[in-house]
Amino acid sequence: MSIYPSGTLIANRYEVVQGPREKPSLAGGMGLVYLCVDRAETRPDMLLGGNGRPGALKTFRPELLPDRAARDRFLREGTTWVQLGKHPHIVRCHQVFKVDVGSEVFFVLELVAAAEGKRDASLRSWLIPGKPLSVEQALLFALHIARGMKHATTKIPGLVHRDLKPENVLVGRDGIASL
């Protein structure tokens, strides 16, 4: 497995529109995210162009695949995420699937489009060094995060996020923050 370039079709369904090659912020410590169009869904896609439902695929970094414990943690993360269901302050994970050949696992995620003027949808893109968010904006984001975590811990008692940071909080065009 390697990092897929734009135009690649994953699982004969998800066309990569943008990935970590084109946008390094889509690569995290353990995972890679691909902005995709689901070609099995036939509807106009205003965010990514063409026909199909926009979405994101998250997968494991190829260099970490030999680590069985890390792969198992990644798979547990995905199955737990699906169990959280739909909530306005949690990015929706629709399903987890494995590609037939190899050990690649993908999470099918809702796409959170970046707000106008932001480089991406992460909370990090809202933070300017030396310039704090307004108190109102900071409190609103904190409230969104708390509501998302409350939902998650109500659905799965004892759940701990373990990686809550600005890169993992997404803020959409509507100004709503999601974990």
Overall number of domains? 1
Question: What is the CATH T-level topology?
Answer: Transferase(Phosphotransferase), domain 1
**Count of individual helical segments:** 2
* Strands ordered across the widest β-sheet: 1-2-3-4-6-5
CATH superfamily: Transferase(Phosphotransferase) domain 1
Task: Give keywords.
alpha+beta; six-stranded antiparallel beta sheet; Transferase(Phosphotransferase), domain 1; 179 residues; two-stranded antiparallel sheet
Overview of this protein structure:
This protein is α+β, with helices and mostly antiparallel strands. It has one domain: Orthogonal Bundle (Transferase(Phosphotransferase), domain 1), CATH 1.10.510. It has two helices and eight strands. It has helices spanning 68-83, 135-155; strands spanning 9-10, 14-18, 31-38, 53-60, 93-98, 105-109, 170-171, 177-178. The strands form two sheets. The protein has a six-stranded antiparallel β-sheet, with helices on one face. A two-stranded antiparallel sheet has the order 7-8. A hairpin with a 3-residue loop joins strand 1 (9-10) and strand 2. The longest helix has 21 residues, at 135-155. It is globular. The model has no long low-confidence stretch (mean pLDDT 88).
What is this structure's SSE topology?
Blueprint (H helix, E strand, L loop, with lengths): L8 E2 L3 E5 L12 E8 L14 E8 L7 H16 L9 E6 L6 E5 L25 H21 L14 E2 L5 E2 L1
Antiparallel strand pairs: 1-2, 2-3, 3-4, 4-6, 5-6, 7-8
Can you summarize this structure?
The protein has about 180 residues and is α+β, with helices and mostly antiparallel strands. Helix content is about 20%, strand content about 20%.
